[in-house]
Protein 1
Amino acid sequence: MTTKKILRAAFLAAMMAVLCGCAEKKPVLHIYTWSDYIKPELVQQFEQENQCKVVVDTYASNEEMYAKLKAGATGYDLLFPSSYMAKIMNDQGMLQKLDLGLIPNRRNIDPAYMKLAFDKEMDHSVPYTVTITCLGYLGSKVPDFKPTWGMLDREDLKGRMTMLNDHREVIGVALKYLGYSLNTIDDKELAEARDVVLRWKKNLAKFENEQYKTGLASGEFLLTHGYSGDLMLVQSENEDIQIAVPEEGSQINFDDMVIPVGAPQPELAHKMINFILAPQSAAELTEFIYFLCPNLPSYELLSEEIRQDPILFPPAEIVAKLETLADLGENNVKYTKIWDEIKGGE
Amino acid sequence: MKAEARVKLSEWLVTLPSFVWLLVLFLVPTVLVFAITFKPATPYGGIGEGWTLDTLRTLGNPNYPAIVWRTVWLSIAATALCILLATPMGYYMARVSPSRRRLVLLLVILPFWTSFLVRIFAWKVLLHPEGMLKHALVSLGLISPETSLLYNAYAVLLVMVYTELPFAILPIYAASEKFDFRLIEAAKDLGASSFRAFRSVFLPGIRVGLLTAFLMVFIPSLGSYVIPDIVGGPTSEMIGNKIAQRTFVDRNLPHAAGLSALLTVAVLVPMVAITALRRKENPRSALIEEGV
């Protein structure tokens, strides 16, 4: 699928190059992002305003994008990695320092979310969207749902629940449930979290990153731990699906905009970032991709339905309990070890 | 003498393409996997400079024996079930009329016309907790409504047997086809019961087919990754899944390489044992020669 998409994008890019060859030479901005992650009309508007061409190429995971760049791919001007990946890339000198003078719209970023970001100074990255790890469930099949991670203890849902197949997400949930930070490196807290997950594991159908979406939509699973954007997307397939952010707090993930070292059009890339951060663009993007663009002045431009959505706009007391997964470097081994114990345990 | 030399040369020339194929696509990657095992891992998922034995030490992970044991028992069970089902099938195919045989053969290889992945997903639909099969079994009172048909080791075993059965049927059929069934008649004439004739004459007669079927099922089973990933649950992880986790999630290539090397050795042991066994019995026969 993905390869096909890439091939198609490459083919379109080649066609465009041929077509543009006859006309005057316009600068070309190469964007590398997730699929369906930018509104095509906005891209067209940007092309007209800046007399340029925009080529959008897509990837399916941070790792795929990272591996491709590591293998020597060049020519991209703007990337949309998750924060943890942006940090890994920046630590290795793969990202440019941003020229904030070219991004006056950066002031629009919602300070409540900026507080949670890694790169608070916007040295090399600017937040594009935020997603929260939530619980999705079938309203008619899960009686007395309560917005707590403790739902994973429910024996009556045994064998019909999933958690993400990701050590940081799963251990992070248990840590939050126990009231600890999901970036803790305290061995005692981690051991407690492990025991909680081992208890939950008895009730799980499986650890699953992809199939939980269709599984929930088809009624195979009754309760799943997943990303808000994904869950909202499958909500359109099955109206019975409900989403909740547990009251103990959760993980919040940022996808950032970054410019790689060696980008051919850094100035145009800065313009694109600034364009996306304009309230009008941010509002259109939130409505189109169903991920929240944390852009304060854009909120009032959103439809009432979106404004009232408790997942896109969780109450302030829940936002206060959200945490970002930090890259733990050497200490990541502690999580890997516990994850092995969880996976290996009965 | 000269003619013999020419035969030797042509033998070499005929072997060369497959030899190069094996060298480039099998031997070189395997050696690389073994080599990477002795390299240090970098925190960014790369392979560091120099050489180290650290990976070998971490392979002593206390969580591994359970996963290795699960991999081995699932593989043995899948192999045994496949051979148990394939032997009567091979016998039947060898005895049936040629037109019927062609039809059955077509049915055996028919699944290969569809993608392996699609067929596994079909099992997910079949075993779906709200699916027909589940409802039928529940209404017959065979299982309780809480029983999950998916996401456990038995679901993995079922789909493994389903996927690998043709690989057991084909060599057993090939060997049965060459079997001289007059030997069974002779055994019966000498007073053997049908079952005794089947066991003491037919089974030894298709031994090579059985051995090939064993290898064709057991080896891919040990390396299973997709099946436990899709129909397995939280406690049906196999070595293949661990290798994938080390590669993609933990970004520890040397550790993944170490596990792969371990798996390669585990596959080579039965291969070498069987070859040695057969050499001892019949010093001039090679492994595949009389088989498929």
Protein 2
Amino acid sequence: MGRTDAADNKGANKDGFDPAPLVMQARNGDRQAFHRLVDHYQPQILRMIHYRTRSRMDAEDLTQDVFLRAYKHIGRLEAPALFRSWLYRIALNRVRDHHRSQRVKSLIGFVSTASDDFRETEATADAPEAPERLEAHAFRERMAQLMESLSRKEKEAFMLRFFDELSIKEMTAAMGKNESTVKTHLYRALRKVKAAAGDGEAFWEVP
Amino acid sequence: MKNMKPEDTHLNHEELLLAVVDRADLPPVRRQHLEQCARCHQALADAEAGLARMGRRARELAPAPGRPFRLPASVGRERGRRWIPLWLTAAAAVCALFIAVWGPSWWARQTLPEGPTVAAVDDEQFFQVVDQLVANALPASYQGLASPGAPAVPVDLDAADDFFDWVVPAIDDDEDLLT
């Protein structure tokens, strides 16, 4: 938080991984280079999609699709250093498409939806040990409560920043908005989350 | 408290949130206060730590990939194709439509000879005839009769005699009638 994003300017991510050379190799048809990129980013993209779909199966499928699309269109990526942001952008679009198709299915009775988030059934969900599951459930409930009043863009900004740990610059690329707009969404999101947390509690403490 | 300068007051909630987004967005005076005030610095650190904890917990609860991704052998990359911006595509479509609709008539105009067209020449001749008819509605031989002040027009004398004979018949003719 509050970092200077100096790493972004060099192309390296916060973890020191620089995707640019591998992206250049993948653009020239090197499949192994692309697989190395996948190995590095797949956990992040899967998590990111899982936060938004709440379904492991859907998250796995969508993640596969994100990387397939990324490989097909990697020639379009103008700035190899922004590969991570570009992946997040593809993933955000795929999640949006997924939600749209879920809504259409819900209209004709194939699936049921609850608000904007699609909750998996017990049969399809992970089945961790009971205490952990309870804790996870409590956390998700708390998150849902804190973010209830956020608009879609505010929620997106908040999650990209604090769950996915994107810098402001990466967020602008992933969301396709300018820096000022991204900061405004983030500021409003923080205000609403703070208000939802209540005055009596510590600043957005979570279980 | 009344005489407190802005740089002496602690950051309020709004300023704290602004600092969480990007502390560079704080006004210089408030940023300076944040750097020097241990209490505000701690408040910001607590807020950031709380948010970091939230994110870390979310990441811990998310699943790890179950299926490693490997490119199918049949999948190829887009080659030799660059992204064409939507606006450029739209502009090209408008140009193509304009050429399809207006192109033939423009081309026809370009291939016509210079000067008045055939239709224009016909029109001009037609209106000359009309003007002439309006100005000289009677046959030339009667125009001098209709307009006494008009300039003398050469008259066919035989025709004129016939006309007068018809208007004022000769006495001889009457006599013939009496006989």
